[in-house]
Amino acid sequence: MPSELSLIRDNALIVIPARFKSSRLPGKPLIDIAGKPMIVRTAERCLEVADRHEVLVATDDARILETCEAHGIRVEMTSSEHPTGGDRVAEIASRSKADLFINVQGDEPVFNPEDILEIAKASLRDRSKTYIGYCDLQEHEWGDSKHIKLIFGLQNQLIYIGRANVPGSHDGQFKFAYRQVCVYAYSAETLQRFTSSHGRTPIEEIEDNEVMRFLELGMPVEVVRLSDDSISVDRQKDIALVIERLGKNP
Questions:
Q1: What residue numbers bound the domain in which 63 lies?
Q2: Contact 162, 207 (CB under 8 A)
Q3: Do 104 and 16 touch, CB atoms closer than 8 A?
Q4: How far apart are CA 164 and CA 82, in angstroms?
Q5: pLDDT tens for residues 140-161?
Q6: pLDDT grade, residue 250 (50/70/90)?
Q7: Please, which pLDDT band fits residue 235 given cuts at 50, 70 and 90?
Q8: Confidence band (pLDDT; 50, 70, 90) for 234?
Q9: Are 134 and 151 a contacting pair, CB within 8 Å?
């Protein structure tokens, strides 16, 4: 029986980039989350809407490779020189026959798998664009640089993405804001152009967010409203939040 993903988009591949050497949480993909490594939990979320051959972990570390293989998750080794997950996905795309690549960040163990289907549907509109997810940002999250904020135009075109408190106002007060949901969709051709900079672009480097590279290269990015279920694990305290969520929704 075809997966939910294949019913929307033929020849799509979900790629989960995972590197061991995280600056904030070393060994992050293998952190235990309620009895399972985080990378396994993330992959299992993807497998709720996709077949096993449609989900691939892309890593540069043998420990992550061995963990995925032990759990029956498709996995490939990639270069250790990639500066971002997008560059790692681009390497996979360079040797894959898929025509759509969906990047799900490996530190999202409780994201909503339905978001994958939403981003896949959006990608049918225009193959030349990159599609990224967003949801509402709460006022108490606005001043936290952990949350990537974005602003976009009336046609859902991304204008800026980064860590600053945007949109701003004269009185400095919170009005409304959106945060990034770390699911991306793009074609192999788009990924090839993404890597044409041969490294991070200047503002991407400062913001520490790879989506900024598309804008700096003049490439169109469209935003897609997704759920606000995701909790990215960037800090030690995020692990407790994820475990609490799993306790409520095992």
A1: 4-248
A2: yes
A3: yes
A4: 25
A5: 889 888 899 999 999 999 999 9
A6: low
A7: confident
A8: confident
A9: no
Number of domains in the chain: 1
Structure tokens at 229: 């279920």
CATH of residue 112's domain is: 3.90.550.10
Q: Are strands 36-37 and 32-33 parallel, antiparallel or unpaired?
A: antiparallel
CA distances from 192 to 87, 110, 125, 195, 237 (A): 9, 30, 20, 5, 36
Percentage of the chain lying above the pLDDT 90 cut? 80
28 token code pair: 């992050």
Of 22-26, 55-59, 101-105, 161-165, the poorest mean pLDDT is in 22-26
Omega before 167 cis (within 30°)? yes
Which two three-digit tokens encode residue 19?
């590197």
pTM: 0.94
